[in-house]
Each structure stands twice: as C-alpha cells, then as structure tokens.
Amino acid sequence: MPLRVGIVGLPNAGKSTLLNALARAGAPVAAYPFTTIDPNRGMVAVPDERLTAIASVTHPQRIVPAAVEVVDIAGLVRGAHRGEGLGNQFLAHIREVDAIVHVVRVFEAPDVPHVEGGTDPLRDAEIVEAELALADLATVDRVREKIAPRARIGDKVAQHELAIVDRVREALQRGVAVRQLDLASPEAAHVAEWHLLTTHPVILAANVSENVGPDDPRVQALVRHAEQQDAAIVVVNAQLETELADLDPKEAEEFRAVSGSEAALPRLVRAAYTLLGYVTFFSIASAEVRAWPVVRGTTAVEAAGKIHTDMAQGFIRGEVIPWETLAAAGGLHQARERGLLRLEGRAYQVQDGDVITFRFAV
Ligand SMILES: Nc1nc2c(ncn2[C@@H]2O[C@H](COP(=O)(O)OP(=O)(O)OP(=O)(O)O)[C@@H](O)[C@H]2O)c(=O)[nH]1
Ligand SMILES: [Mg+2]
After folding, report:
1. Backbone φ, ψ for residue 100 (5° rounding)
2. Are 122 and 218 in contact (CB under 8 A)?
3. Ligand 1: which residue has its CA nearest to atom 14?
4. Is 17 in the pocket of ligand 1 (CB under 6 A)?
5. Is the CB of 242 within 6 Å of ligand 1?
6. Label partner for 236 (CA 20 to 30 A): which of 12, 17, 107, 277?
7. Nearest protein CA to atom 5 of ligand 1, as residue
8. With a 6 A CB cut-off, is 19 part of the ligand 1 pocket?
9. Ligand 1 atom with the shortest distance to the CA of 20
10. Are 152 and 191 in contact (CB under 8 A)?
C-alpha cells in the first residue's frame, strides 16, 4: 500500500497548487502517473536517483518507484468545528493517512484573497492546528460518552480506557497534539482506534513566493513553531513548482541549478520518511527494479512478505548488496563473482539502500 499523505491548510494557502505540482513533477519518473481517483486525490511517484543507478547496471524492463497517495481537502477556516466555511466535513478523508502536510501561506498576492484579511503564517498555522485539535476533541467526547456508563458500573477495561480518554482530552483542550503525548504502546493502540487527526506526523509546508523567501522572519517564526510542535518543515514555492513542471525537464533543471531551488517533492518525501522512520530497499527480480519503503527495523522475512506472501512463507535467505556497491561493481553477476553479495537470514534488519534478492521455496 502506498504511503498516504493528507494536505490541510486555510483556503487559498496553495494546497491544490502543491498537489498539482507534486503530481506533475512525479509523472515523468513514473509507472504511477498522476491518476486522479477523484478531483483531489493523486498518486505521486517518489523520485529516487538510486533506482536509476541500479537500473543502469541491471538493465530492467521496468523501473517501479514507490508511490505516495496525496489527498487534498477543502480549506479549513476558524470555527470549522462549529460548521464555519465548508466545516470539517472533509476531515474524514484524512483520518487514515500516514502523515499530514499542512500548507501555510507565506506568499503575498493581492489578487488571491485571504480569509483572515492578510498573510500571517504563524497565526494561520495556529488556526488550522486548533481546528484539528477541536475536531479530535469532538471525537474523543463521543468516545467518552460511549465508555463512561460502563466505567461507572465498574467495568475495569472501560475504566482504564476512560483514563486514557481523559488524558488525551485534557491535552487537546490545552491545544497539545496527541502525537506530542508520550503514550506507552498499549495506550497508543487504544488511541489509534479513534482515528484522531493530531496523532499523525505533520510536515509544515511554508508556501513562499519570489518576493517572500525562506529567509523571511515569518518563515523563521514558522521554523521555530514547527520545532515546538514536533513537526517537520519544508519551504516550498508551489506556484514556481507548477511552472517548472510545465517546462521541458532540462530547462527546469537548469533553472534549479542557477536558482538553487531543490525540487519540493523529494524534500517532502524525505521529511515524511524521516518522521515515519522509513527506509527503502530495492528488489531487482522479474525484469524490474523496484523501490520498497518499509519501517526501520523491518526484518528480511517481513520485507519478503511485502513483495509476496509466498516469499515470506517459503523464505530461505536474502542476497543483499548496498546499491552503491552494486552500481560500482557494474552488475549483479560481477558483484557475485567478487563475493560482494551477503547472505542474510530471516532476522536480518533491512538497511536503507539495500538491494535484496530473496530466495524462497514454493
Ligand atoms: N503568488 C502566488 N500565488 C499562489 C501560490 N500558491 C498558490 N497561489 C495561488 O493561490 C490561489 C489559491 O491556490 P489553491 O492551490 O487553489 O489554494 P487551496 O489551498 O487549494 O485553496 P482551497 O481549495 O480554497 O482551500 C490560486 O490562484 C493559486 O494560483 C504562490 O506560491 N504564489
Ligand atoms: Mg484546493
């Protein structure tokens, strides 16, 4: 299943512009072109230069990058939890994502109205964070109503759950995101069942423009805010990214080289992978080279199971080589002859950049 990311932010923050830019930037690398599932949902291929390097020595028929499913919802406004604006009716779409990208408008554009009257990134970020917390508070209150009667009549499990509910509730009332609570894993498992929004890791995307750049004090204030919120921050120029996506890729690359603007997509994906603790391994069987993002600590047999359940069931061993070593050796055959392939058992922990061929019995 691809990584799922939900985009939130105030109206006119540039959410859809960012989604379009990402989707188009991803398309040329991809076996996953931008496929619109509904108007605000896109599949984005994850660019990874390591795939190209591996392919240049293994000559596969196909390169299959990892994918990210991006869901873009209508803007939230102050009071959304009370039904202001489009309200929070669309929040259901982002309950089950793996990470949230919160687009904050830093750009100034007189022709693009701002619901709060003017650009103020920190204030805007706090409005959206408050609405997410208030939406969670409403969810938690519903959970509480269900379990409180059982707790009152002495149900021990319900009493335990009620204690967790109240801890989460108290944090949300103070505006603290649930991801910032140090929940022990049994508690976290309970909380996960409530599908809260503020449990998800967050990447703030500061949407800048040519006239308001990354050094702007308001961006710097956002950087500090992100730190306090245990969120990552990526500075993007969604408008520029869209324009570059329309250019010939060579021209776009030249522009990036001259202006020093690194593409937003890989930076966003890197931030998400880091927050989620993902590493990527590569498979090179069946005439394709393919990227597989997995949680750090994934074992060889679990990794095999990602590819196919048969591979996990009949697991014999993994033949492992770091991608750089494979690329430098000039091919799998050469690497094998030079003894560069390691044989690893089921418990081996997959490392970022491993190229793995699984041996299994059917
Ligand atoms: N100048 C400038 N305009 C931008 C930038 N990003 C987005 N815009 C413009 O802002 C307007 C709103 O952008 P959208 O991407 O539709 O905003 P949104 O967050 O999806 O808004 P809603 O869907 O209404 O919540 C569009 O006219 C964009 O062209 C930017 O970086 N600079
Ligand atoms: Mg939009």
Report:
1. -115, 135
2. yes
3. 14
4. yes
5. no
6. 277
7. 239
8. no
9. 15
10. no
pLDDT tens digits, 283-313: 998 799 999 999 999 999 999 999 999 999 9
Q: Among candidates 238, 252, 206, 256, which has minimal Cα distance to 21? A: 238
Ligand number with the minimum distance to the CA of 212: 1
Task: Look up residue 31 and give its two tokens.
Answer: 């076996």
In order of their start, the domains of the chain are: 3-48+65-115+199-275 (3.40.50.300), 130-192 (1.10.150.300), 278-360 (3.10.20.30)
Tell me how far the alpha carbon of residue 11 lies from the centroid of ligand 2, in angstroms.
7
- In short, whether 233's Cβ falls inside 6 Å of ligand 1 is no
Rounded Cα distance between 351 and 324, Å, is 13
pLDDT tier at 26 (50, 70, 90 boundaries)?
A: low
Query: DSSP label at 11?
Result: T
pLDDT at 71: 87
Q: Lowest-confidence range among 168-172, 251-255, 336-340?
A: 251-255
- The HSE-up count of residue 324 (CA atoms within 13 Å, CB side) is 2
- pTM of structure: 0.90
Mean pLDDT of 179-187: 90
Say how far apart CA 31 and CA 21 lie, in whole Å. Answer: 17
CA of 74 to the centre of ligand 1 (A): 12
User: Does ligand 1 come within 6 angstroms of the Cβ of 179?
Assistant: no
